[in-house]
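Final report, results section. Input specification for complex C-07:
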Amino acid sequence: MKTVKQFLSSIWRALFGDTMRAFGIVSGLLLICLAIAPTKDHFSEWHHYQNGYLSLIHDRGDAISLRRKFQPGIQQIWLPELGVVDRCATCHEGLKEASLADVTMQPLRKHPVIPHPIDRYGCVICHRGQGPATTVQEAHYSERAGDDPVLPARYIESGCGQCHQNELTGTPQLNNGRKMLAQYGCVSCHLIKTPDGITMKSTDVPPSLEHIADKTTREWIYTWIKNPQAYAVSATMPNYKLSDADASDISAYLMSSSTPQAGDVDATVIPLAKNADPSAGPSLYGESFCATCHAVQNDAGNLVGGNVGPELTRIGNKAKPAWLQAWIENPHTYNSATLMPHYRLTPQQVATLTSFLMNKTDSDYGTNVHLTAATPAAVARGKKLVATLGCAACHTINGVNKPDNFAPELSRVGSKPLAQLIFLPGMEHTLPSYIAGKIKQPQAFGPGLKMPQFTLTDEQRDALTTALLALDERSQTMPDKLRVHSVEPTTYEPAGQAGKLMADLNCLSCHRINGHGSDMAPDLSLEGSSVQSQWLDNFLKNPNTLRPALTRRMPRFNLSDADRKTLTDYMMVVYQSPTIDLDKAPPAVNPPAMVEHGRQLYYSRYACQSCHIIDTKVDKGYIGPTLTQVGSRLTPAWIYAWLKNPQELRPGTMEPNQNISDDDARAMTAYLMTLKGSGKQEGKQ
Amino acid sequence: MTRRPVAYAVLLLMVAGIGCRHWSASSSALKPTAAGTAIVLSSGDKQMGATGTVLPSPLVVQVNDDQGTAVTGALVEFQGPAGVRFDPAAVLTDSSGQATTNVRLGTIAGRDLVSATTPGKAHPATVQVAEIALGYQQQLGSILADQFCNRCHDPESSAQRVSNYDNLAVKPHAFSDGGTLNKMSDADLLSVIQHGGPALSRSALMPPYGKTLSPADMQAIIAYIRVVSDPPYSPAGTVYGK
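Structure output:
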């Protein structure tokens, strides 16, 4: 101990015993301290990368120009409006150099082409990460509370979704995710208020269960809620992983709370004649274009048909014959909000279709289900379960109200702080992996969690995660002028007598009119300017596809002459374009020289035959509508306006704007108006 | 003093231990029960997907023996460029001799060359396939091509989408036809898209899209044509001498 003390005091004396010496040593220490900062700077990571960049460009052909553009030191982008400060370009030096396209080494790669200049948008707005950080670790991977690690590439489209509330062509994943939020019922439980201020609504309205006992049996309900995908592979209802007892009690409650619906129960099933043609059912199913909306699994296990209505592979296991018959007769009686049209079938046709569908059964489905008779205790327990599980968030159920704020709001889920998240063991501690994990196996996150298990592919999960990540703090708080707003669907409904008829036929289930409806069939907002009334009347009588390459999907609704006239008159008067200039178009009949000139333009200069057919012997174009009868289908004003700019009349249509001069367009309109396609010619073909 | 060599030895052992553990973890835990001599592609090559996403169909390869019959239980390891992930990265062939993996593309747009290797009996056998990762621009191009171009340029016909290719008197070039399209510069392709076939004295059946598509859209379609071209496109740019 003593020796140590002696040793230390001797050192002290040696260093500071003399004033001059002490001064010198202190000055020396000070200098060393001052040198620390520049030295650290010199050995910093970003310096290392900048040197790497300089040696990369050294040997290239355009080294001189690249070196001239190189800026040493910290590079910062500051965008106060967006709250962006980032220094990424300090290390990522080659971001803007087009000539570095062949470099694959990070951090020196050129940025792939995007629509926005980096200087004006920064990096973190799309990629996340800590913008102001100057080390790789801190900028990219920090997991501290409040920090945001760099987003994996597969979710990058969420960056676009912060400003773009509309549908962008280049972001299919984001568009799909947003659609799924509405389609899979996410927004029935979770409140999502988009940055536009719109509260998202579910687009797929699950059936009301108020009259469920008319439609199906308790055994079917039991089997369905145990595993919806076992009944229909395309079912969107999630799997709640219910125990046998829970499923039995819920089915007991749903049956006991159901009230009978007039029309379902009093329908007497029309028996089919014994010698009925067995092919009548399938052919009526085909003729009615049921497959446009409903899918059926074929022998190979593939779904054939649309996904608007429920899958019908095992409909015979589910539906009661009387109900199905009443439904086919007029679906609006049971469910006034259904998308299915009222077909106006004859009683015989209804019976044929009912018996055809009732034969669609799976003998293995729902066997060995033996439920004990429902006791009042079981019914009461079932009601409690229905309320706790939130069934009424999607379905209308007698005796249970639609719950409010059933699940956490997701309007800002894309900025949820890491400190608020509970991760599963082995999971990467980042928000995207949490969201994706929660969608993948919601019930693994703790006992008693109510979110059910959805059947989704990896691709769908990535899409949902992308759409949710776009709902972040920045998207909700940015100045409104920076947002690109979504096109909100209108609530347009056709009016009057024709409106009632169109609601009964559910035209808007397939067609869009004035911003309301679906995209399956052509937009009818301008139909009155486009077609001739005689043609429209004939089309409604006997619809046919206009394009050889498309399968016809429009059913025949067996409309009466009076109904057809009501519809035709309404559409001809109301659905007019305000922009089509009737004076510019040529009249319906024109001098032969002009017609011939139009014909030549059609075949030579504009080569319309590549997509359209006029002379069925020579022309082969498959894509556009056949024009053999175009003169009796379309109005001259529409043809002229279409030739001038098809994109204006139907945005996104394949036919390009060919910049046709007024004279050429008039001549071609004159030619096309001569194509009346008489029935005789048709017969020959 | 005498303890120093012992300390060194302990340190060395520890380092070796860590190294070995690392090594044993990286080597496959799968125990192959058989070995083949050849590996062939079954399905899943030349797929397209956005960067960072999982390809729509899995990559399937088959291991065969000398006689060309499938081998069950042979080890197959998948490898690709940095960023490309496989789930699983190593797998034993199933009863039909096939090894299946899901491919998640890397972050760099372009052609990802992916290889599947089986150790084999004497020497390893490898099959190499190309997958295509689309960046933002190429993906936009692929969507626009689907909307405006592929109905004529893609000879493949399906029930949902009938191709117009066979109906055209002058056949359009498929976008993957690198043999022809690689010889055309970006400017040539742009003028054909913009002004139609006659711009380069080609068929008038190709209409002009310059008034329909924006310049960025047309560039995106060109970027898409370049990325799907087979053989691969390499721009004739500056040649960098060392």
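Chain B has two domains: 38-134, 136-228. Residues 194 and 210 of chain B are 4 Å apart (CA to CA). This concludes the modelling results for the funded period.
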